[in-house]
Design brief:
By secondary structure, the protein is of the alpha/beta class. It has eleven helices and five strands; from the N terminus they run H-E-H-E-H-H-E-H-E-H-H-H-H-H-E-H. It has one domain: Rossmann fold. Bound molecules: 2-acetamido-2-deoxy-beta-D-glucopyranose (2 copies). The site of one 2-acetamido-2-deoxy-beta-D-glucopyranose has 4 residues, from loops.
């Protein structure tokens, strides 16, 4: 597939970000924060790196921050599998709070698990303010299956799949495996509610935290994009789930074209 075509299709969310009528100190544009998916990193020239570059070319003067979780690209990739999600979210919150360029607010775009992680940022960390959240293939109701792994991480995935199947809700696995923290076993809902360290908390399964609700309602727009032919997570419907009332409906055609294409590239 050609880069030009990809650029065209990806222009959907970009235009949406660009169209935000807010004017901030950053050269008249609203900054964008992006969070990569599982097996990916902040700066892979074929994924987040390309998206960052494309957006910068598209919107002159924009500040794009592609989140790196850890000190380098290798740590960043590993942390996507093994670092406690709650810790990752609080690291990101303090990074965003300390960034002077984000003072006036920002838009956010999360890819795959980065989608639900950024929703946690919106719910837990109201300042600086997230304006629009675009979740591309985020699993907001969790996963109950990891049929295929992206890229070169397939042996890590085999290991992870075994751990998840044998005891996703054990303390040991919960603490050390990112995907366990959004593992949602529909046949054992009580176990999920009780033991899920991350997802059950942000989805308000144990108690309703009014602060989460209030913070999430501060979003001007919340866009959830679902990959129609996702082969990496199960069930696909998790990608548009809770909070449907907040979904902004953007052109179905653009979304389905776009998701068709990027589901082969990004997770
Ligand atoms: C915004 O930034 C771009 C590139 O950095 C620059 O060419 C442009 O003049 C700036 N515009 C404003 C209004 O500051
Ligand atoms: C609700 O969320 C806020 C923000 O993360 C947190 O400080 C507070 O402790 C939470 N309250 C409960 C009851 O979990």
């Amino acid at each position: 597939m050609t880069t030009a075509l990809l650029c065209f299709l990806l222009a959907g969310p970009v235009l949406l970000v660009a169209a935000s009528p807010v004017h901030d100190p950053n050269n008249g544009t609203t900054p964008l924060v992006i969070w990569h998916g599982m097996g990916d990193s902040c700066c892979n020239p074929l994924s987040m790196g390309a998206i960052k570059k494309m957006i910068e070319e598209e919107i002159s003067g924009i500040y794009v921050l592609s989140l790196m979780i850890g000190k380098n690209v290798i740590e960043d990739t590993e942390n996507g599998f093994f670092k406690d999600v709650n810790e990752q979210v609080s690291m990101v919150c303090s990074q965003l709070a300390q960034d002077p360029k984000l003072k006036g607010g920002y838009n956010a775009m999360g890819f795959s698990q980065g989608g639900q992680f950024l929703r946690a940022v919106a719910q837990r960390c109201p300042s600086p303010q997230m304006k629009t959240l675009i979740s591309v293939g985020g699993q907001h109701q969790g996963v109950y299956g990891l049929p295929r792994c992206p890229g070169e991480s397939s042996h890590i995935c085999d290991m992870i799949r075994k751990a998840l199947n044998s005891g996703a809700y054990t303390d040991m696995v919960q603490k050390h495996l990112v995907q366990a923290q959004y593992w949602h076993d529909p046949l054992n809902d009580d176990l999920y509610k009780k033991h899920s360290l991350f997802l059950a908390d942000i989805n308000q399964e144990r108690v309703v935290n009014e602060t989460y609700k209030k913070n999430l309602q501060q979003l001007e727009k919340f866009v959830m994009v679902k990959f129609l032919q996702d082969s990496v997570v199960d069930p696909v419907d998790s990608e548009v789930s809770v909070l449907e009332t907040l979904i902004l409906s953007i052109g179905y055609l653009i979304i389905s074209l776009m998701t068709h294409l990027i589901s082969h590239l990004y997770l």
